[in-house]
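Exercise 7. Given the encoded structure of a 440-residue chain, write a plausible sequence.
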């Protein structure tokens, strides 16, 4: 289909561009013409559309002028699937060699390297593209690879995450109507949240960015990764219904991806086991439970019972001992509860550490402890005092199942008094979140 002369080349390149644009539109807008039930066929349909597009594009040997552009477009067509394609890498590498200022070729080559698992080479491509021209695609991609780069230290990784947020913000500033930029900014905030002590304002920024992605770009709501990443955040925030809905939606949008379904099932199993153990007070026999609860003493409150507790203001305050059943939803300022551990619940994900707490009267409460080292825990029979406990009554409904239980969230084991003793600084650790290599 190539023609002799500059004008012919220009028209032919324009035709190639339209074919490749059409291929990517088919991929990115798939669910505008297909139902979610067809999600399992999407990858195969995209692959068939790619083969059809390549046939229509024909050979590129006849291009004397604009050859780099033609190589780039064919490489981009081969790069449309989530899997690494060595031919795409070969064509794109030739394109940037012929025209080192062809920014789109650098971006596509970087994506090929990323799919290959060569994060350093991908980083070089995206940085190099920005050296030629500031553009939102390079900024988006650079934000993603910065979080994947191998770091020599935790400080270097934290710096990379901060830089990732900066690049994503720059991409958003270049085009506030680009849903992909907002989505990538949400992921950057998500990573920042888990790497810097779980500041609630950062989690809100992540959720706001995801919401903005869906607002400005209808295709964002068909992105399984957005739903999985947002559900991860909801689960950590103990918004269990929203987490389950997110995992379920991600699984529906990408049936071949096992992780969303696994995460949904893990959370359902956790809630079923937890509510059963709470209802049965850990299956501790009645006489043993009476003995455990009857031996609770004020001395086991430690610094929470003698006026030495240091509140969030930094001032020492006297706390009033209350029963679990007397707690109000939200933070119970000026109060402390004391109970015995009647069970602990381990999960594959390690965080949070979950246990059941009972006192002399009323039901058993779930306690979830975050930011602890993996070796930390409490044993059945331990006394635990929780100052200014944060109570939430959970009511979870999902796919015909419902769970209701009272829960106390504890941000760090440093707040707890176990068997009358405060917990040392060695019990606290930062939480981390796992990303799959190409989660964006």
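Solution.
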């Amino acid at each position: 289909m190539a023609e002799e002369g500059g004008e012919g080349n220009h028209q032919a390149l324009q035709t190639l561009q339209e074919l490749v644009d059409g291929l990517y539109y088919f991929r990115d807008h798939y669910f505008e013409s297909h139902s979610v039930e067809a999600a399992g066929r999407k990858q195969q349909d995209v692959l068939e559309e790619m083969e059809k597009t390549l046939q229509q594009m024909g050979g590129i040997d006849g291009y004397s002028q604009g050859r780099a552009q033609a190589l780039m477009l064919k490489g981009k067509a081969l790069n449309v699937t989530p899997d690494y394609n060595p031919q795409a890498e070969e064509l794109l590498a030739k394109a940037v060699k012929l025209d080192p200022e062809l920014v789109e070729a650098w971006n596509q080559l970087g994506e090929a390297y990323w799919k290959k698992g060569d994060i350093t080479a991908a980083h070089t491509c995206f940085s190099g593209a920005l050296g030629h021209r500031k553009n939102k695609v390079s900024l988006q991609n650079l934000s993603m690879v910065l979080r994947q780069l191998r770091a020599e230290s935790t400080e270097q990784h934290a710096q990379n995450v901060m830089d990732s947020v900066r690049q994503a913000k720059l991409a958003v500033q270049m085009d506030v109507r680009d849903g992909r930029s907002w989505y990538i900014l949400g992921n950057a905030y998500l990573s920042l949240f888990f790497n810097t002590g779980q500041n609630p304002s950062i989690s809100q920024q992540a959720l706001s960015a995801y919401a903005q992605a869906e607002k400005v770009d209808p295709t964002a709501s068909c992105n399984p990764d957005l739903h999985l990443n947002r559900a991860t955040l909801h689960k950590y925030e103990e918004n269990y219904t929203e987490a389950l809905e997110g995992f379920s939606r991600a699984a529906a949008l990408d049936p071949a991806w096992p992780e969303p379904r696994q995460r949904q099932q893990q959370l359902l199993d956790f809630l079923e086991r937890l509510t059963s153990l709470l209802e049965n007070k850990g299956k501790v026999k009645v006489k043993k439970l009476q003995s455990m609860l009857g031996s609770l003493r004020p001395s086991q409150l430690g610094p929470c019972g003698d006026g030495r507790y240091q509140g969030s203001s930094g001032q020492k305050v006297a706390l009033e001992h209350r029963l679990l059943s007397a707690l109000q939803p939200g933070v119970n300022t000026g109060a402390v509860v004391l109970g015995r551990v009647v069970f602990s619940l381990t999960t594959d994900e390690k965080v949070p550490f979950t246990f059941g707490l009972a006192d002399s009267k009323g039901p058993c409460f779930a306690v979830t402890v975050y930011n602890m080292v993996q070796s930390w825990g409490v044993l059945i029979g331990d006394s635990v005092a929780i100052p200014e406990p944060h109570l939430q009554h959970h009511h979870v409904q999902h796919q015909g199942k419902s769970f209701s239980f009272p829960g106390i969230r504890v941000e760090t084991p440093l707040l707890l008094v176990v068997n009358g003793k405060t917990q040392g600084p060695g019990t606290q650790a930062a939480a981390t979140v796992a990303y799959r290599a190409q989660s964006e």
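Remark. The radius of gyration is 27 Å. Students should compare their own answers with the one above.
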